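// run 5 | inverse folding | seed 20
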């Protein structure tokens, strides 16, 4: 009866959920494309030029993903302020440290250590991001960053495992298309990026749901 008497409440809740779902998919798409392309560039080549391009991709993607959060909970007027650039830089640093630790330690232990470190780094970055765009946030809202960070770190672990410990590919028979022949090749890194994307969607959906109160 209370909902019927207050139709505006239902409309506001529906709008919040719609905004949250849209923002979550947008953030997850940006994160998946950014991390996936950066990871593919880094593991595929170790040249200085490729590393610089990959770093640029990672930072620009981090800035865009941070901007999605800012646009959803605040505004875009001052996204390029030093504090907000710092949030994007913190996200970039977290991913760099993740891969560095994994490669330096190596093996299953390296994946585990890197995953734990990434989870902690993402939790700190999410909290920083929330403080920047929502300075009135409560400590309880900050704790809501833990589960999304764990989910993203788990997805990142799958990404590492798909490259380091799984070595197979699916190749279709040649398909004749007029004057050309098409061969479809699906590698484990592509599946790893897909799984990471699914984790990213769930993580950001949970985060925006808590932040927007939907």
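// decoded
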């Amino acid at each position: 009866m209370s909902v019927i008497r207050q139709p505006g409440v239902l409309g506001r809740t529906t709008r919040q959920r719609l905004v949250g779902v849209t923002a979550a998919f947008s953030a997850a798409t940006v994160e998946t494309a950014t991390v996936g392309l950066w990871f593919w560039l880094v593991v595929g080549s170790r040249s200085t030029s490729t590393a610089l391009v990959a770093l640029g991709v990672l930072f620009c993607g981090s800035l865009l993903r941070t901007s999605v959060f800012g646009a959803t909970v605040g505004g875009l007027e001052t996204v390029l302020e030093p504090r907000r650039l710092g949030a994007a830089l913190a996200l970039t640093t977290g991913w760099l440290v993740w891969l560095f630790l994994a490669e330096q330690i190596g093996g299953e232990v390296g994946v585990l250590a890197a995953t734990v470190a990434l989870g902690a780094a993402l939790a700190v970055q999410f909290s920083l991001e929330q403080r920047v765009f929502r300075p009135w946030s409560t400590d309880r809202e900050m704790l809501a960053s833990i589960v999304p960070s764990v989910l993203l770190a788990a997805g990142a672990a799958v990404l590492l495992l798909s490259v380091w410990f799984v070595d197979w590919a699916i190749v279709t028979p040649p398909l004749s298309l007029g004057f050309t022949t098409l061969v479809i090749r699906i590698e484990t890194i592509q599946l790893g990026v897909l799984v990471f994307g699914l984790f990213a969607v769930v993580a950001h959906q949970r985060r925006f749901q808590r932040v927007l109160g939907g």
